[in-house]
Protein 1
Amino acid sequence: MPLLDLRGIDVSYGDAQALSNVSASVEEGRAVAFIGANGAGKSTILRAIAGLSPALRGEVLFDGADITREAPHLIARRGVAMVPEGRRLFPTLTAEENLMIGSLSGRRGYWTLERIFGLFPAIREFRRRLPSQISGGQQQMVSIGRALLANPRLLLCDELSLGLAPRVVGEVYKAFAQIRASGNSIVLVEQDIVRARAASDAVYCLLKGRVSLYGASRDLTDQQIAHAYFGS
């Protein structure tokens, strides 16, 4: 049984349909990437899983339980945490205080503050600073650390590379191997196709709210991805 199972979900924003009959699954300990152009519905996938944009039709199952219309805080308690697009740190809290927000879930597990410092050693140096006093890449490290301190079974990551320098993106993705080794399952939304394929076991490509391609990351060709991505 998959840890996460999306079964024919539809999501709309008013009259605009963002997702149509989308099915996907994530096995325990695996990483799955959703790729696609702007507006393809990638971030909506994460919002539907987290309960922020509930599916109007279809089912979202987590560890066999139907969470389709469950409240976001209850889904978080089950073991789902998100690294949101744009980091979304609390501006009046220090980096360390932002990290500790994650631990309020009350879940126990592998991730502790010291292990976050081990994953991103730079955080220890700026732990007392406010988000406005650190770089975008450092903010992204804190955002990932905050989600991990909730000790989720499923980590949702939305556009980790957005607005970051290539060197910083490399540092962030280098941490993925250790995150996966801890047992976390991952759903990754990313426009950087190369990064997405390298960091995942399987790829779903979305085109206008529908799945246009699915396959093992190592097996998909550039031509297949280009066709599915652009619909050409």
Note: Residues 51 and 108 are 22 Å apart (CA to CA).
Protein 2
Amino acid sequence: MNNEQELKELVKQKYSEIANQERSQNLSSCCGATTSCCGDDVYNIMADDYTQLEGYNPDADLGLGCGIPTSFAKIKEGDAVLDLGSGAGNDAFVARKAVGEKGKVLGVDFSEAMLQKARANAEKLGLNNVEFRQGDIEKLPLTANSVDVVLSNCVLNLVPNKHKVFSEILRVLKPGGHFSISDIVLEGNIPEKWKQVAELYSGCISGAIQKKAYLDIIEEAGFTNITLQKEKKIILPDDILSNYLSPEEISEYKNRNISIKSITVYAEKPSKDDRNCCEPGSKCC
């Protein structure tokens, strides 16, 4: 399965199913993969605890994240914030608390089921400066230089062409704007078999790339002041691994020094950008 469009359709299908699952089922699998792996025990494998944050709405928390980028994003009152892969709105609602009445938060997601859930949550909360828009984060439905801060939580690893995403983030950020993104990366070579498992792809892992390659893409896109704000190792229990690997393969995996990590990375768009990035469809950097 190497066609980018096929991979995107796979992720869209899986995350539409996830939108209608219980949060406990999402937490018990890898980034919400629809296969529940852990029997009666719930492993909080990827997600961090949002419950103490201002603006937190439990109805919007599906347990799909792998960090808390809003805690590191340096959001100010009045900012325009963009949340990529906004899901049911968890990060968007926390960000809205930070921007206040004078700011604006836009969430972009390509799953209609997720958008419906997010919009229903926003309506219940009575928020008029939070919007959820359908779109592909490789071709964002926004004008250039229009947002102060970009957020994303455990989403970019699912996108086949990460170069396009970071190019789009650079385009829509205002000069001097910045992003804070939580994502899954690898250190060491993941078994080829994992890359062929559909459920694991939609569960964040086989779509992830090497940490150095990830950071290199950010630098190549033109960002500056690239900073790792948080890093943690993700431990996959044997009962999850056994859904995809034989006992011999599990042993090999553990002996190959493969590290799956959640990182939260920050970077800035230069205040002066001489490359004249422009609108989608035109020649751009």
Note: DSSP finds nine helices and seven strands in the chain.
Protein 3
Amino acid sequence: MIDKKNIPQHIAIIMDGNGRWARARALSRTAGHREGVKRVKEIVRAAAELGVKVITLFAFSAENWSRPKKEIGALMHYLHDFLGREIRQLHKKNIRFLNIGRAEPLPVSIQKEIRQAERLTKSNTGLTVVLALNYGARQEIVDAVKKFATEALASKAEIEELDEVKFGRYLYTVKLPDPDLLIRTSGEKRLSNFLLWQLSYAELYFTDKFWPDFRAEDLKEAIQEYQSRERRFGGL
């Protein structure tokens, strides 16, 4: 049974394995991504019902631009569909939407839809769904350093006063709690340049299931595993 008093407040997920799921069924990679979108809807709904406050989904990395143009086009199509249709459903359920990652070189139409979705849902007080698009943790840290350096040069920040807490204010995830739990599907056991700063003390959960096979019951299993661990944050 899940302890409702010990639900991870922020769950980050690396949604991996869409292509391999499709290949195992003699389907196109785009078919795998299409099925993956269905799991996003299911997992978001389950997270909201369980009382999770924030869920961050690694949807498209800064390195994914090296994939075939046809596959990128399909991903952008599914993203367009999600932003144009599913966001309204999230809004009705009091769910807030946020995006992290660099805007460029995402299509201008996608950038516009992201801004519209954030504006529409900004006052919602339920689950916060964060989509990491064109995201890379190293680029996030570099961008944060540039922001701080710009303020320091303009005498708006003091170098000597910079600490871990203040540095966090320059990250894409400002005002969001750090993840308590990271889930990665498909059997891979690495972070792949995802939330490197924020995941410092997160519990890591890896499953061999491909993302299209990851269901609400699997999310509950991951949370039960999380609850079985003792989090000491470096203490005794």
Note: The two ends are 27 Å apart (CA to CA).
